[in-house]
């Protein structure tokens, strides 16, 4: 099983490096975690995340945590909006906020669907909340720019 | 170096013959112990190498699949990998045991070859060429090749199978659909 996930990870990294514009489906949590990890790992400027509860299976994972810490340390602007008032991975949310003020904002709904937008050019966008299916694209600046716009809109920035 | 090794085997045989029964016995025992240990370690090394090679093959085969296929076919892939691992366990266990038994027999044969100084009767080079050590390494290489070839056949079948399915897969995720989500429509 590790071989398959490792192969998947390497292929997605290749897509990021090659700025592959192919849009692919994602429905499994295992694969979603890999996608989010690699998107953040390759971020150079911004990471915007909208999620429902800052789920432990993704953000409680030590690898994801290390990747997010690294991103903050290399100066990437990270902003995570969590709809629920109490994030599931609460301890880590607090740690991130200690590292950089207001990185994780609980009770915030910037966008209706869960998403992760990186560097205004890559994204993972949930399309069906019940099925938890999502679209993933390693390079689509117009759509990513639009998504990032929600996080940078004066209303949302002012709330901060 | 090869010639020096052959000479060493012959001179060891001569020592056994000249120094009497006790020296010969000790020589046989030492050769058996060292030989068995060496063969066992080599066998394990080969078994690990074969398994690693198999995993690398499988990894490359999975990587060749279209990216979106990898998630869709995750269960199939997982079953395939588990099946392959089970095959390794099925084949490698008995193979390892067989090689260890063979190595004991071969090292015994090697020791007795020294003891009876067969090298003198069949000649230096023939003795070296047919020495148990050379036979053993050749045998291991042949086993490695057979296992690799067998696995490649399986992997090719698996990749071909995937490419047939690839033709059937639903393609084309529409940007418009994403746009409508992004625009909140």
Topology:
The complex is a heterodimer of chains A (160) and B (185).
Chain A: H1 2-17, E1 23-26, H2 29-41, E2 46-51, H3 56-59, H4 62-73, E3 77-82, H5 90-99, E4 104-106, E5 115-118, E6 122-128, E7 133-137, H6 141-152, H7 154-159
Parallel strand pairs in A: 2-3, 3-4
Antiparallel strand pairs in A: 1-7, 2-5, 5-6, 6-7
Chain B: H1 2-18, H2 21-64, H3 67-72, H4 74-115, H5 118-122, H6 124-129, H7 132-168, H8 175-182
Report on the structure:
The complex is a heterodimer of chains A (160) and B (185). With 160 residues, chain A is an alpha/beta fold. Chain A has helices at residues 2-17, 29-41, 56-59, 62-73, 90-99, 141-152, 154-159; strands at residues 23-26, 46-51, 77-82, 104-106, 115-118, 122-128, 133-137. In chain A, α2 packs parallel to α4. The model of chain A has no long low-confidence stretch (mean pLDDT 90). Chain B has one domain (2-167). Chain B is 89% helix and 0% strand. Chain B contains eight helices and no strands. In chain B, α2 packs parallel to α7. At the A-B interface, α1, β1 and α6 of A face α2, α3, α4 and α8 of B.
Short characterization:
The complex is a heterodimer of chains A (160) and B (185). Chain A is of the alpha/beta class and 160 residues long. Chain A has seven helices and seven strands.
């Amino acid at each position: 099983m590790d071989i398959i996930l490792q192969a998947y990870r390497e292929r997605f990294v290749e897509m990021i490096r090659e700025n592959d514009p192919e849009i692919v489906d994602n429905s499994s949590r295992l694969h979603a975690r890999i996608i989010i990890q690699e998107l953040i790992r390759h971020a150079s400027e911004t990471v915007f995340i909208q999620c429902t509860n800052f789920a432990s299976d993704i953000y409680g994972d030590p690898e994801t945590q290390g990747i997010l810490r690294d991103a903050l340390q290399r100066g990437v602007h990270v902003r995570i909006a969590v709809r629920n008032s109490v994030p599931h991975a609460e301890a880590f949310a607090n740690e991130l906020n200690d590292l950089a003020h207001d990185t994780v904002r609980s009770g915030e709904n910037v966008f209706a669907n869960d998403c992760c937008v990186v560097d205004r050019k890559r994204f993972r966008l949930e399309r069906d909340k019940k099925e938890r299916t999502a679209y993933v694209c390693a390079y689509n600046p117009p759509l990513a720019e639009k998504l990032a716009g929600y996080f940078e809109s004066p209303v949302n920035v002012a709330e901060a | 170096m090869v010639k020096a090794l052959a000479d060493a085997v012959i001179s060891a045989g001569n020592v056994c013959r000249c120094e009497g029964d006790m020296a010969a016995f000790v020589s046989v025992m030492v050769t058996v112990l060292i030989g068995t240990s060496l063969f066992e370690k080599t066998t394990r090394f080969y078994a690990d190498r074969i398994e690693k090679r198999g995993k690398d093959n499988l990894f490359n085969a999975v990587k060749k699949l279209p990216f979106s296929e990898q998630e869709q076919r995750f269960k199939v892939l997982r079953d395939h990998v588990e099946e392959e691992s089970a095959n390794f366990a099925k084949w490698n266990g008995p193979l390892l045991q067989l090689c260890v038994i063979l190595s004991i027999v071969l090292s015994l044969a090697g020791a007795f070859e020294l003891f009876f100084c067969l090298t003198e009767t069949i000649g230096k080079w023939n003795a070296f060429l047919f020495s148990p050590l050379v036979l053993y390494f050749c045998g291991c290489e042949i086993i490695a090749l057979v296992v690799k070839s067998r696995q490649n056949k399986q992997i090719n079948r698996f990749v071909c199978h995937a490419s047939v399915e690839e033709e059937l897969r639903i393609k084309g995720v529409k940007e418009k659909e994403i746009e409508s989500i992004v625009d909140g429509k």
